[in-house]
């Protein structure tokens, strides 16, 4: 099913920043972006204070593999350590953001039980890193974000989805299961009823539906996708990174109201000792 879906998707989608050439690369590159690191399955570029991670298996619609997970995790951790990086954008090369698990690799029957465990744990660690890192993460989605790709996208702090892109969790249709903490996170994002519909029916929604449900931050046209993401990056980059980091951590917890009051007070007192606080107060 997924292999047929992959082939169908490959014939009808656009790239994130333009159409594809025959090699599966965008027909134009942004000259303002500085290459930081390149690996076979994840490309990493800096644009100002923004770190761009590009899932780079376009021939497989960026279907997730051990290599893609491993390299994504490494790149995310490096971005969090780099104090010059104020924001991370994850996107996909070619015709889709990420079409989910590469079932061709799964169906080969060559993985051992240990390798299957490693694959599952890698996927969990990637989504956990996105959700828990102090640096804000934007997922820029075009084409399809399905299964594991949807798990990565919905782990991000902001989801910018092209109007005609499709997001979905088809696991129930192919007899597999969910990951990335989605059974916990998705109901918090869009409510239990909507999450139940998406997860139990395996339905797909487009960018406009994702925006209406509160899942997406914006649902621009394909042509405006990159510009919309850039505008969001600029907004985030103007804000104090330590405040962002602490607020992001607070939003990810399930504290009682009393614990929240205590935690907020501690965070505020800590922020008052920072240069961000001094500069912000001085600006007024």
Strand order of the largest sheet: 1-2-3-4-5-7
Low-confidence parts: 7-32
Question: Which structural class do the helices and strands define?
Answer: alpha/beta
Tally of contiguous helical segments = 13
End-to-end separation: 59 Å
CATH superfamily of the largest domain: 2-enoyl-CoA Hydratase, Chain A, domain 1
How many discrete structural domains? 2
Rg over C-alpha atoms, rounded to the nearest angstrom: 19 Å
Strand content: 5-15%
Give the total of beta strands. 9
CATH architecture group name of the largest domain: Alpha-Beta Complex
Q: What would the average pLDDT be, to the nearest integer?
A: 86
| Helix/strand order, N-terminal first | HEEEHEHHEEHEEHHHEHHHHH
Estimate the global geometry from the Cα principal axes.
Answer: globular
Reported for the largest beta sheet, the result is:
6 strands, mixed
Helix content: 40-55%
The CATH topology label of the largest domain is 2-enoyl-CoA Hydratase, Chain A, domain 1
Which key phrases capture this entry?
single chain; 284 residues; alpha/beta; 2-enoyl-CoA Hydratase, Chain A, domain 1; 2 domains; six-stranded mixed β-sheet; three-stranded mixed β-sheet; 48% helix; globular
